[in-house]
Amino acid sequence: MDIFVQQLINGLVLGSMYALVALGYTMVYGIISLINFAHGEVLMVGAMVSWTVVTALAGTGLPGWVLLLISLVCAIVACSALNFAIEKIAYRPLRNAPRLAPLITAMGMSLLLQTLAMIIWKPNPKPYPPLLPTDVLFLWAEGPVITYSQILILGTTVVVLAALLWLVNRTKLGRAMRATAENPRVAGLMGVKPDHIISLTFVIGATLAAIAGIMWALNYGTVQHSMGFLPGLKAFTAAVFGGIGNLTGAMVGGILLGLIEAIGAGYLGELTGGVFGSQYVEIFAFLVLILVLTLRPSGLMGERVADRA
């Protein structure tokens, strides 16, 4: 029972990070029907910028939580500027091109960002400083544990997801996003500026990716130029799992994928008689992707076409 609850906690933490990144994929797809495969690298840039700021301010004597907030603001600004530039330079000129062209461009942008990050920050992994207390909290005596970083990740995810749903469903900007997703030309006739809304959607997605990148660095304690590829790919799987273009589906898909991975990692060795260990945990994400694409291509909650944002 203790192992199951521990893996449940780990799965919720992992799923929270997947959900934040998956929302970036699903929002962009909802607006312009594009899979932004460079989104994982935006997460990486957020983590690397945060590491740079924290390292630069390490000798100032500021508390860890202050360093975390400062680095978060810097990461959000850097990622927002980067994603804004990517949309304007790489995707906007191809908006009316065949769908294969922006897809190939997105893959090329991903490789470009990885290479630039390797040049700027060097290829070796870097330890991310523990900015929060490293003590663990026992849920009960000698039972499952949770760290302060994990509590922060779970709490931040709940707040961010609630704020995003409120933004999309209750505000004038959200209505403009939904109108642009449904029909950009008609939205333009009604006074909405589709180009501005699309750029803003990329900025919101970058903000979520920056937060997820710092969460990833806090949880695993290391950053490097290639760290965004696998989380980005799994977050895409989560978005497809829940229903690409559906905000609630992306959240649910991310959480479920994290739980499947964590629980699978805890019991895989036992279920296979020791043939496969927890190092094979990556297979679960891609098994989920294959099964969903085969059995339910629209995802668990279905792709929203007319009301996606």
TrEMBL record:
<feature type="transmembrane region" description="Helical">
    <location>
        <begin position="65"/>
        <end position="86"/>
    </location>
</feature>
<dbReference type="Pfam" id="PF02653">
    <property type="entry name" value="BPD_transp_2"/>
</dbReference>
<feature type="transmembrane region" description="Helical">
    <location>
        <begin position="42"/>
        <end position="59"/>
    </location>
</feature>
<keyword id="KW-1003">Cell membrane</keyword>
<feature type="transmembrane region" description="Helical">
    <location>
        <begin position="271"/>
        <end position="295"/>
    </location>
</feature>
<feature type="transmembrane region" description="Helical">
    <location>
        <begin position="12"/>
        <end position="35"/>
    </location>
</feature>
<feature type="transmembrane region" description="Helical">
    <location>
        <begin position="98"/>
        <end position="121"/>
    </location>
</feature>
<keyword id="KW-0812">Transmembrane</keyword>
<feature type="transmembrane region" description="Helical">
    <location>
        <begin position="238"/>
        <end position="259"/>
    </location>
</feature>
<dbReference type="InterPro" id="IPR001851">
    <property type="entry name" value="ABC_transp_permease"/>
</dbReference>
<feature type="transmembrane region" description="Helical">
    <location>
        <begin position="197"/>
        <end position="218"/>
    </location>
</feature>
<feature type="transmembrane region" description="Helical">
    <location>
        <begin position="145"/>
        <end position="168"/>
    </location>
</feature>
<keyword id="KW-1133">Transmembrane helix</keyword>
<keyword id="KW-0029">Amino-acid transport</keyword>
<keyword id="KW-0472">Membrane</keyword>
<keyword id="KW-0813">Transport</keyword>
<comment type="similarity">
    <text>Belongs to the binding-protein-dependent transport system permease family. LivHM subfamily.</text>
</comment>
<dbReference type="InterPro" id="IPR052157">
    <property type="entry name" value="BCAA_transport_permease"/>
</dbReference>
<keyword id="KW-0997">Cell inner membrane</keyword>
<protein>
    <submittedName>
        <fullName>Branched-chain amino acid ABC transporter permease</fullName>
    </submittedName>
</protein>
